[in-house]
Specification:
about 300 residues; alpha/beta; Rossmann fold; DNA polymerase, domain 1; seven-stranded mixed sheet; 7 strands; about 15% strand; globular; binds S-adenosylmethionine
Length: about 300
């Protein structure tokens, strides 16, 4: 979907473990230019090692992909041939990050992908109002028991500040009715943890901001691929792609277009792509991935 070929300029906006990055580098070298971004400094350190064979073609930036334009101007590059965004958390962040992304380990409730930013999950949980916490759990986590969980948190934190992922996971288990928890296919804390991570890292706002300007940075026939794991993220991407494909604002009963807004992209995935069973077996974390791709006209 990215159409990687030798000599092209490609951006991986979310390096993570550099799995995609390495494959892209293999395909665009010789002659290509690779730009890698991640807001987690561990991902940048890891990329320096994994992408060492391509070091003379690689430029790494520790920062948010919503600042892509700034990074490109530092390199004197106006436009690229392709950009990849693989949203969410990396395996490293979940399993070894030590920042409370997972309820499976007992870690400080941090959840910042970029540890230079101010807001942590701990601050949010210990200072947010019941209404704010309920809103986060319901909107970003689609958590049915959002109100009960928020009420339990407020009651608990009056006695003991919430500091660790285990404390929070145990509290969520006590807040959800036992019968309802038993029926769930996922761990009862899954949705709350995901919603806190989305709120702490302002993931939906950042994605919108990135989409506002990405077309300015793509060459004609340049490609953008987005891998989303969450229905809210995927909805944002789907809507934006649709608005680029059909920007015409004329009322539907007009016999012909008078607004003059012409399509900006070709949608390469009119139907979202999901992983097949074989891929899910090999990589269970891929199970809820949705891939959407476009080509700039
Ligand atoms: C799912 S992982 C990417 C995995 C990667 N494609 C690979 O092959 O290993 C997501 C990564 O994106 C980073 N990330 C998420 N949102 C970001 C943002 N707004 N700006 C920069 N990096 C971001 C996270 O820190 C994480 O390392």
């Amino acid at each position: 979907m990215l159409d990687c070929k030798p000599g092209k300029i490609m951006v991986d906006c979310t390096l993570g473990g550099s799995g995609h990055a390495r494959l892209i580098c293999e395909k665009i070298c010789p002659g290509g230019t690779f730009i890698g971004i991640d807001q987690d400094k561990d991902a940048i350190e890891n990329a320096k090692t994994r992408l060492l064979p391509f070091a003379d073609r690689v430029h790494l930036f520790h920062g948010n992909f919503s600042s892509l334009g700034v990074f490109l101007s530092e390199l004197n590059i106006d436009m690229v041939d392709g950009a990849l965004v693989d949203l969410g958390v990396s395996l490293h962040q979940l399993s070894a990050g030590g920042r409370g992304f997972s309820f499976r380990a007992d870690e400080p409730l941090d959840m910042r992908m970029d540890t230079r930013s101010d807001l942590t999950a701990e601050t949010l949980l210990n200072t947010g109002t019941a209404g704010e916490l309920e809103h986060i759990f319901r909107t970003y986590g689609e958590e049915r028991w959002a109100k009960r969980i928020a009420t339990h948190i407020i009651r608990y934190r009056d006695q003991n500040p919430l500091k660790t992922s285990r404390q929070l996971a145990d509290l969520i288990i006590t807040a959800i009715p036992k019968k309802a928890a038993a029926k769930q296919k996922i761990h009862p804390a899954t949705r709350v943890f995901m919603s806190l991570r989305i709120a702490v890292n302002k993931e939906l706002d950042v994605l919108e901001h990135f989409l506002d300007s990405i077309l300015d940075h793509l060459k004609p026939a340049g490609r953008l691929c987005v891998l989303a794991f969450h229905s809210l993220e995927d909805r944002i991407v789907k809507k934006r792609f649709e608005s680029w494909r059909k920007p015409c604002t004329c009322p539907p009963d007009f016999p012909r277009c008078v607004c003059g807004k012409i399509p900006l992209i070709k949608n390469l995935t009119p139907k979202v792509l999901r992983p097949g069973l074989a891929e899910i077996e090999k990589n269970p974390m891929a199970r809820s991935t949705r891939l959407r791709a476009i080509e700039k006209l």
